[in-house]
Amino acid sequence: MTALPLEAPDHERVLISHGRRSGLTIIVAVHSTRLGQALGGARVWRYASWTDGLADALRLSQAMTMKNAAAGLARGGGKAVVVIPDGAPLDGRAVHDAMLDLGDAVESLGGAYMTAEDVGTSAERMAVVAERTAHVCGLPAEQGGVGEPADATAAGVHASILATLEHVFGSRDLAGRHLVISGLGQVGGRLARSLAAGGAELTVTDVATGKRALADELDAAWVDPADAHLVEADVFVPCGLGGALTPEVVRDLRVRAVVGAANNQLASREVAGLLTERGIVWAPDFVVNAGGVIYLDVASGDDADADALDARIAAIGDTVASVLRSADEHGTTTLAAADRLAHARLDAAN
Ligand SMILES: NC(=O)c1ccc[n+]([C@@H]2O[C@H](COP(=O)([O-])OP(=O)(O)OC[C@H]3O[C@@H](n4cnc5c(N)ncnc54)[C@H](O)[C@@H]3O)[C@@H](O)[C@H]2O)c1
Predict the structure, then answer these.
(1) The complex's ipTM?
(2) Where does this protein hold NAD(+) (predicted)?
C-alpha cells in the first residue's frame, strides 16, 4: 500500500476522473511542464483503494520530472494510473474501455501530458489510447509508432554499468567481473545477454522459474530470488519491481556497486545514506533507466535519427559517471548528486 503523503503536493495539475466506459478511476498527475510537455507512462494496476493509486501517480509523476530533467530532455514529468480495484475482474473488454477513457482524460489536458506504456500497458494498448488523443507515443511499429523501449533501456543500463565499473575499479572491462541480475524480464533479459556477451560472469534469478532457460543458455548461475542480494559479487543489478533496496537488504549486500533498471529501487530515501555508509556505490535508478524515455522522446520526434539516438543512450553512462564523481566531490549520497543535476536543469529553465 502506498500512503498519500502528508505534505501538500507540488504538482501542476492532477486529474481524477471516472471513466465513463470502464467505470474505473483514472488519474493523470502532471507534476511539471517547466521543461516541456510532461512525458511518462500509464500504469494499469490493482490497488486496495483509489487513494493508493493517487499516491502512486503523485510519486511516479514527480520521479518522471527528475528522470526527464536528469536525462537532459525538453520534457516535464507526468504519469497516469488506471486503478483496478482489488478483486475486480479485468478482461480484454474492460482494459480496452479503460484505454479509451484514459485517452479522453489525456486529451482533456490539452497537451500538458503525453502518455506511453508502463506496467500493465503495452504498445498495443497505446494504440487504443490513440483512438482518443494524439498525445500518446510508443505505438506498435505497424501503426507508424516506435514500439516498446526495452532495447534502449537495457542499452542505457549497460552503459551505466560500464561507467560504474570504471568509477569503482578503474576499468570498464566486463571480463571476469561477477554481476547478479535480479529480474529477467524485458530489460533484465536483454541485459543478461549483453553482459554475457561482454564476458561477465553472471548469477541470475527471477520469481518466474521459466526464466531459468535463459540462465542455462547463457551459462549463468541461478540463485533463489530471496537470496540474490546475498551473493558475493562485483555488482548487484535489480531489474524486477521497485523497493528492492530495504535497510535489511543493504545491510546484507556483498557487492561494491548497485546498478539496475528497476524504478524506485530505494525502499526509502534514507537507504541512499545506508549504501554510502557501507561503501556501496549506487547508480541512481532514474539516471540509469532513462534510456526508455529518451527513446520515446527522440524516436517519436520528426527528425528521429538512429545515430543521434545511440549517442544519447550511450551518454547515460557519462551522466552516471558525473553523478558518481559529484557525490564524491560534495561528500553526499549519489541520490543527492542526481537530485542536484535534475534541479540544476529545472532551475535553468526558469
Ligand atoms: N521496460 C522499460 O523500458 C523500462 C524503462 C524504465 C524502467 N523500467 C523498470 O525496470 C524494471 C523491469 O522492467 P521490465 O520492462 O523488464 O519489466 P518486466 O515485467 O518485463 O520484467 C520484470 C521481471 O522481474 C521479475 N520479478 C518480479 N519481482 C521479482 C523479484 N522479487 N525477484 C526477482 N525477479 C522478480 C518478473 O518475474 C519479471 O520477469 C521495472 O521496475 C520497470 O519499471 C523499465
Answers:
(1) 0.99
(2) 183-188
